[in-house]
Sequence to fold (74 residues):
Amino acid sequence: MGIDMRGFKVVYKERVYNALNMDWRWGERPPEAEAEEKGIAKPKFLTVVTLNEDGEVILLHDEACMFQFLRITN
Fold:
């Protein structure tokens, strides 16, 4: 289960994709412990379901810092 990301583009390795869905994985420590210590918790890995240039559904999985999300505006 993930978050509906329609309405966003995702930049990954200098390529731009239309995002459909996103899921996340935390590191070794529970997010609650990290948020209590640092005031914020960040996921370690993201899995993003996207559409590529050919309209094919592809899955991108990498460290969270490798992704940038941009809201699609008209």
Summary: Residues 3-71 form a domain with the SH3 type barrels. fold (CATH 2.30.30).
